[in-house]
Design brief:
The complex is a heterodimer of chains A (203) and B (280). Chain A has 203 residues and is mostly helical. Chain A has helices at residues 2-15, 19-41, 44-61, 71-89, 120-136, 139-150, 155-162, 166-187. Chain A has 2 domains: 1-94, RNA polymerase sigma factor, region 2, helix turn helix motif (Rna Polymerase Sigma Factor, Chain: A, Orthogonal Bundle), CATH 1.10.1740; 97-193, Winged helix-like DNA-binding domain superfamily/Winged helix DNA-binding domain (Arc Repressor Mutant, subunit A, Orthogonal Bundle), CATH 1.10.10. Residues 93-115 and 192-203 of chain A have low confidence and may be disordered. Chain B has a 4-stranded mixed beta sheet with strand order 1-4-3-2. Chain B is flat. Bound molecules: zinc ion. Zinc ion binds next to helix 1 and helix 3 of chain B.
Amino acid sequence: MKEQTREHQLVMAAKGGDEDAFAALVRLYEKRVFALAVRMCGSREDAAEAAQEAFLAAWQGLSFFRGDASFSTWLYRLTSNACVDLLRREGRHRSAAGPSLDDEGLSLDVPDTALSPQDEAERQELREAIDRGLAALSPEHRQILILREMHQLSYDEIAEALSLDAGTVKSRISRARRQLRNFLLKDGNFSPPAASKATGKEG
Amino acid sequence: MKHCEEFAALLDPYLDGELSPEDAARVREHLAGCDRCRAYVQAALAIRDAFPAAEDVEVPEGFADGVMAAVRADSLRQKRRRTRWAKRLAPLVACCAVVVLAVSLLPQLQRNTAVSPAQDAAETALLDEGDASAAIENDSGAQVPAQQDLDPSAKQALPSPSDSEEGAGQTSPADVPDSSASAPEAEAVSPEAAEREAILAPYSVQSTPSLTLTAEEAGDLLSGFAPAEETEDGLLYELTAAEYSDLLGRLEQEGLTVAGAATAEEAAAAGGAMVLVVPS
Ligand SMILES: [Zn+2]
């Protein structure tokens, strides 16, 4: 709550041309913006460029930012656009490395692949595998999973950030998640099944 | 499992907290008895648990400073651009003034092929815009003769947008109630032509397909774009034809019709369009 008020104050001040307030916003969001950009662009150099463009676009467009979408959602949208622009501009269409995940032969018959990493080392291993899996996804699928799982946007916010309708958000998330899961299954990164009781909690 | 198909589409919204409590309860119930769906949910939760965190990313050193340097450089550039923009408008106005002239003089041109004097006049007029308003004053008193004679002082009134309206007024029956009486011959400008002119005039500044929106109308439709220029009137966006067409579609969805908007076809023909967003 307090964080939100502070953010709102900074946004209002920056809207009025206060560069220091904008600098504070940059520091507040640089990690989240850069984290999205680095996975969208594929390299830290490109990510830095795209992230800078996104912030610059935010500064330039701030006077027209109405504030009914959240500032962060808007910023992620600018970041996504900057990454797409950069890749397009440079003709750097990174073809997905690794196995193709586009086939929907979902190996749903894999029995109980429950995975709950026992310790931090395992989690770290899985995290690296997820990063490889994300890199193998199409940009659209990668982007939407990052916004959902890393930035924890709701479906509405994602729809807003990516200019998609609600139905597309839902189906794209589902496809993206299934593809990532398939990658991890093939990658052999799921740890052995844990107790197969329902993990019905949403997080 | 036939049952699963019903639930397949609910699993992701369930995981993402997007279901109503009732639907979530139904999913939970299904999960208790279905290994396959449960495996999916557990895998997804494990992915979430280990998902890379934004906090873990290392932002390049000096990144924020670099952004702020770019921001300040941009602010400076914008200030310079504002003056440049004014200069850039002038030739556009000149060229459109000629268009307006050509339309309003069409009947006369058939008799009097004085195209280049008209152009010259329009261009000259631009150079001393300061005199233009004075010219209007003079002008309204002597509209009809000025038109007939292609008097340069008449054309001087044309170049700026407000002047153009004045130009349209020259042949508007409303502004010149007894024009038909005073100059029946000169009234070769048909009512249709006058109307066309009146339509032309307000948009005469726009040689590139363009659209002007208030910030309120624009909402955040343009929030994904960086403005090409910040002018004194507002932010100017340069869109590709496809982006422009998309924007028109969205405006329509919101039930907004904007007078004078260039069509998608015009934008396609010109390879893009400009959108000016003015404060509401
Ligand atoms: Zn099931």
